[in-house]
Write a structure and sequence with these properties.
Blueprint lengths: L3 E7 L4 H9 L6 E8 L4 H8 L4 E3 L8 H14 L4 E4 L8 H6 L4 E5 L11 H7 L4 E8 L9 E8 L6 H24 L6 E3 L1
Parallel strand pairs: 1-2, 1-4, 2-3, 4-5, 7-8
Antiparallel strand pairs: 5-6, 6-7
Helix pairs in contact: 1-6
The structure holds 5-O-phosphono-beta-D-ribofuranosylamine.
5-O-phosphono-beta-D-ribofuranosylamine binds next to helix 1, strand 5 and helix 6.
């Protein structure tokens, strides 16, 4: 079976991107073809160090959001991307762009959705006194952080946690969950995966 061609969109460090790239070795049902960032991002150098093409399509270089998304789409088309993984991509994509990728785009979000869509998830979980936190991989739809859930991983909230210590604990699980969900998704599996 031919391997699904995956592009990854990032805005920052790219630790989830790196976990995905490292997981897509020989025998994996997907292969990485491109990493794109919407700004100069440290993750681009990480991708290139792992032998994967990386490019920046700067939002600031385009007058409109539509122009920026056209440039993104052109880069994805040129790479022959079939699946899209958002990994810390800090830009909301338009319904028109999302509909082109319907059923083929995944995102990772640092909360147990449907709790805490949007930003500052860890501070909000701490403020609410939650006993557990976690992360979710879901399909990308036009509604922010609301698409069908493909996987979740839970961690305990520990006494004395700050948003940073909780984020670090969740991040370790992100690096396990996202590659595991992508592997299943590339094989056509849509049932959610729950870790641990
Ligand atoms: C992660 O916490 C992810 O859940 C969120 O953005 C962060 C990206 O971190 N969407 P990294 O760039 O993968 O290290």
């Amino acid at each position: 079976m031919s391997r699904r061609r995956v592009a990854i969109l990032i805005s920052g460090t790219g630790t989830n991107m790196e976990a995905l790239l490292r997981a897509m070795g020989p025998g994996h049902p997907a292969q990485p073809v491109l990493v794109l960032a919407d700004r100069p991002a440290p993750g681009i150098a990480r991708a290139q160090a792992l032998g994967v093409s990386g490019a920046v399509v700067e939002r600031a270089a385009h007058d409109t959001g539509a122009g920026f998304e056209d440039a993104l789409q052109a880069a994805l088309d040129a790479a022959g991307a079939e699946l899209l993984c958002l990994a810390g991509f800090m830009r909301v994509l338009s319904p028109a762009f999302v509909s082109r990728w319907q059923g083929r785009a995944l995102n990772i979000h640092p909360s147990l959705l449907p709790r805490y869509p949007g930003l500052d998830t860890h501070a909000r979980a701490l403020a609410a006194g939650d006993a557990e936190a976690g992360c979710t991989v879901h399909e990308v739809t036009a509604a922010l952080d609301s698409g069908p859930i493909l996987g979740q991983a839970r961690v305990p909230v520990l006494p004395g946690d700050s948003a940073d210590t909780l984020a670090a604990r969740v991040r370790e699980m992100e690096h396990q969950l996202y590659p595991a969900v992508l592997e299943r998704f590339a094989r056509g599996e849509r049932r959610p995966l729950f870790l641990p």
